[in-house]
Amino acid sequence: MDEFDLLFTTYRGGERRAASEMARFLRDLGDESADIEITEFPGLLLARTPADPFELIEHLRGIAEEEPWRIRSILRVVPVEITTDASIQSVVQAARGLASKIGGDETYRVDVEKRGSSLSGRELIDAVASAIDRKVKLESPDWIVMVEIVGDRAGVSVLREVDVFSSVKAKRDRGNRADINARPADSSP
Known about the structure:
Keywords: RNA-binding. With 189 residues, this protein is α+β, with helices and mostly antiparallel strands.
């Protein structure tokens, strides 16, 4: 798939179930004909949709909170803002274009996930970081410049941590809130 708006993962062997599950969630948002591709990389899928990827993330969070059993196969969903060639120059250009989202006093880090590419992750991180005139912070930055390389294509996004959906984390957080709410009040004097 040359252009994609979503990259999502599942368990190895769960690709067909994850594709059907994603199609259902996208239908909830009005997309009756999403283009979903199971890649050659185990557990990795791509989708092209007219639905807003960030709206999908919020929709998935709501489902994880209210009906967590509906999310069975999808593990992680990353919105993709720009799809480009998987070359350092193209990725840097895309990241530079999206970097205006990062305020002058805000921080960021660059995350690179490579699949089927011989590009150097270190070189790519260094090139992107040198093109963005903001402060880098590796732990708890305000923004993440996410580069997802799939073969000869790259998906680039500038995201807040909450813009990436993890079903495992969402369900764990929901469980932790339920545990806190279920604890009896301390009756000691």
